[in-house]
Amino acid sequence: MAQRYVRVKTSGGQTYYGRLQPNRTVEVLDAPPWLNGQVTQQILNSDQYRLLPPCAPSKIIAVGKNYSAHAAEMGSEVPKEPLIFLKPPSAVIAHEEAIVYPKQSQRVDFEGELALVIGSRVKNCPIEEANDKIWGYTIANDVTARDLQKKDGQWTRAKGFDTFCPLGPWIVRELTPGACIKTYLNDDEDNPKQSALISDMVFSPEYLVSYISHIMTLLPGDVILTGTPPGVGPLQVGDTVTVEIESIGKLTNRVIPAPDDD
């Protein structure tokens, strides 16, 4: 099993990065692992922490229509260059935290995606060097208010609600060649709504890192969402949505209504 890197909060309120062990204990690091964090003597048992999103990005850069079949289902052609947009860091939630269905929307969709975690400052990076800038991989759900996306014409509101970027549950350093990404609802693993190979992307992870770095400086811990495969669909209050990627794991979140005072 690949080493899993986590970010946790203890029952006492301290936040740590660490290495998750098979018995669910966490070996605490003295810094984020991409900043050369080293293992300390502190060990957290499974009842002493809860998982947080595995990083705290300064920004989340997402890529639209990066699978040709998804572009087709959205009624458009594959872009000639990556179509990028931003999601705010305030949208990030952890594995098993709740997605809040906003009152402003009548159609909220799931979009399972592979997420890249950047390990160092990256600016104007040649594509030949881009792979070395990807510290690791995790899972994301680019939750989208589809009706607002169509209404607004630009995507900030539709993509930017609080809780609209589940991320996690951990980061791994390597991705299995030919890894499959699947999204399913309410534990129905036999009937995934989305199922595709990561290799089906139009623009590769390395290309995306290089391309984006020529637009904006990427910082350690920043996240790139690499696009969603075909099969996106609606979520309902009460649903549980799971995104699974081979060699990483499963990211699961339930959907709840917005509170009355929201």
List keywords for this structure.
SH3 type barrels; mainly beta; Fumarylacetoacetate hydrolase, domain 2; 12% helix; 262 residues; 5 helices
Describe the protein's topology:
Elements: E1 4-10, E2 15-20, E3 26-29, E4 39-44, E5 49-51, E6 60-64, H1 68-73, E7 83-87, E8 92-93, E9 99-101, E10 108-110, E11 112-118, H2 127-130, E12 134-141, E13 144-145, H3 146-152, H4 156-160, E14 165-172, E15 180-185, E16 194-197, H5 205-213, E17 223-225, E18 233-235, E19 240-245, E20 249-257
Parallel strand pairs: 6-17, 8-14, 9-20
Antiparallel strand pairs: 1-2, 1-5, 2-3, 3-4, 6-7, 10-13, 10-18, 11-12, 11-17, 12-14, 15-16, 15-19, 19-20
Q: Overview of this structure, please?
A:
By secondary structure, the protein is mainly β. The protein has 2 domains: 48 residues, SH3 type barrels (Roll); 198 residues, Fumarylacetoacetase-like, C-terminal domain (Fumarylacetoacetate hydrolase, domain 2, Alpha-Beta Complex). Helix content is 12%, strand content 38%. A 7-stranded mixed beta sheet has the order 7-6-17-11-12-14-8. A 5-stranded antiparallel beta sheet has the order 4-3-2-1-5, with no helix packed on it. The chain has a 5-stranded mixed beta sheet with strand order 9-20-19-15-16, with no helix packed on it. The longest helix has 9 residues. It is globular.
Task: Report a brief summary of the structure.
Helices cover 12% and strands 38% of the residues.
The rough form would be described as globular
CATH class of the largest domain: Alpha Beta
For the secondary structure, the number of strands is 20
What order do the SSEs take from the amino end to the carboxyl end, as H and E?
EEEEEEHEEEEEHEEHHEEEHEEEE
**CATH-level-2 architecture of the largest domain:** Alpha-Beta Complex
